[in-house]
Amino acid sequence: PLSPQKHGLDFQRLLDASAYKETFRQDMIRWGEEKRRDDPGFFCRAAVAGAVQPVWVVSDTRRISDVEWFRDVYGDVVQTVRVVATEETRKRRNWVFVAGVDDAESECGLDQGVAFDWVITNDGDERSLDQQLETLVQSLRGQL
Length: 144
What we know:
Elements: H1 11-14, H2 19-38, H3 42-48, H4 64-74, E1 81-84, H5 87-92, H6 105-108, E2 118-121, H7 126-142
Parallel strand pairs: 1-2
Enzyme class: transferase
InterPro entries: P-loop_NTPase, Pmev_kin_anim
Organism: Brachypteracias leptosomus
């Protein structure tokens, strides 16, 4: 099993789109899958540990079990947001499909089976993105 903290990996470099991350990506996925099999809420609890803000943004949930955990624990106050971009846009941003990684549950586990409250399109149109985010923020403010 591979965890960044226990194996001396540079956590910040694992967060970017570098070759460094890609070197360890499949091992990290495997380690994460083992953790989730043992405890589906492991990463969700870690994400909220110590958080006391009235609004949290939990980015990068990867599986239906993550969404279900937040809904079970926090109920109706949970708002799910999916950010999408076309494959063409993603390629312009230097994304390259890697079989066995980009088609794994860790990357596409939420592509089906979740009714998102919000879908934000991020294809490079800054004005459109700003408008979508402003609508989301205003809605959230209305719930405080």
